[in-house]
Write a structure and sequence with these properties.
- The chain is built from 5 helices and 4 strands; from the N terminus they run ααβαβαβαβ.
- By secondary structure, it is of the alpha+beta class.
- Strands 3-2-1-4 form a 4-stranded mixed β-sheet, with helices on both faces.
- α2 packs across α4.
- 27% of the residues are buried.
Length: 114
């Protein structure tokens, strides 16, 4: 197994830890939010090309620029305050309650973090 593959899997094995760091940062910025792990990690379908899909459900409507800014703020806070590795393979899906319904419908399994 190549060193890159080992390195990647070492990150993916820490999915819960990384999700909790994202959840803490999210809670700091959006106290009424909910955080879930979805996708292949939640469904135990991890491959070397997987990432850690994190669904953040917020209680208010945001436009595209506001979502982009909040996503950036969450990631930076998780890195700076909660020691999320800068190269952690996380993908944040930021949705309001209505937008999150589609993710819940399509997901075979979700894991609530916060």
């Amino acid at each position: 197994m190549s060193s890159w593959v080992k390195f990647r899997f070492s990150h993916l094995r820490r999915w819960r830890e990384y999700a909790e760091k994202i959840a803490k940062a999210t809670q700091d910025l959006e106290p009424n939010s909910e955080v879930y792990v979805i996708g292949g990690v939640a469904e135990d379908r991890i491959t070397v090309l997987s990432d850690i899909d994190i669904l953040i459900v917020i209680k208010r409507k945001l436009n595209g620029k506001e979502k982009k800014k909040l996503r950036e703020m969450i990631l930076l806070r998780a890195i700076d305050l909660y020691n999320l590795p800068f190269d952690a393979p996380v993908e944040i899906h930021l949705k309001d309650e209505d937008g999150a319904k589609r993710f819940f419908e399509l997901s075979k399994k979700v894991i609530k973090v916060l």
